[in-house]
Amino acid sequence: MTVTSNTIANQAVQLMGGNQPAVSGMAPTFDSSTNGKALQNLYAPTVAAVARQYEWGFARTVNALVVTGNAAPFPWAYEYSYPAQCVQIWQLAPAALADPNDPLPINWIDGSNLVGGTQSRVIWTNQANAQAIFNANPAESTWDALFRQAVVELLARVLSLATAGKPDLAQSLLESSSGFTQIAEGRDG
């Protein structure tokens, strides 16, 4: 059986208890049930929050960064676009290591700048031809078993508060889900 966002969501619904019906659909377009509507807002930020807790090996990706074409602010020499599908950058590396047994850390920081007229997340560093080592938010079918369990348990907690808690608390949690997303996408550097 292939694991999907629907599988994860329904495991969380079962963990909540109360004989609730299963949801249909996949993230981010779950059905229009109470749980489905809540999952539309809570699924992605919950996965991102768990992904940021540890450097999960199964999610490790190494990609060459792309220069934005902008001048980097002082004291940095290069500005790169933030990688697509990146949950969190763990470190930067040069394209080739001078001594693979003694890699030196590379200083960098993430920021925000206009790239092609659009406000975008960027990386500033002094490393030419940098590569990023990061969590790439892989598909549910590739998740580590412990990561999957952590997502299911946290999703069940936030979902139960958002749907079965006090009505004013539930409404507040659903309305603040964008804030939860911002927290999950917090500072990398």
How would you describe this structure in keywords?
three-stranded antiparallel beta sheet, alpha+beta, 189 residues, 21% strand, single chain
Rg calculated over all Cα atoms: 19 Å
Tell me the series of helices and strands, N- to C-terminal. HEEHEEEEEEHHH
Query: SS-based structural class?
Result: alpha+beta
Q: Give the overall shape.
A: elongated
Q: Biggest sheet, in brief? A: 3 strands, antiparallel
How far the N terminus sits from the C terminus, by CA atoms, comes to 38 Å
Strand content: 15-25%
Q: Helical content, roughly?
A: 25-40%
Mean pLDDT: 87
State the total count of DSSP E strands: 8
Spatial arrangement of strands, main beta sheet: 3-8-5
Number of helices: 5
Low-confidence spans: none
Question: Can you describe what's shown?
Answer:
It is built from 5 helices and 8 strands; from the N terminus they run H-E-E-H-E-E-E-E-E-E-H-H-H. The protein has 189 residues and is α+β, with helices and mostly antiparallel strands. The strands form 3 sheets. It has a 3-stranded antiparallel beta sheet with strand order 3-8-5, with no helix packed on it. The chain has a 3-stranded antiparallel beta sheet with strand order 4-7-6, with no helix packed on it. Strands 1-2 form a two-stranded antiparallel ribbon. Helix 2 packs across helix 3. It is elongated, with a radius of gyration of 19 Å. The model has no long low-confidence stretch (mean pLDDT 87).
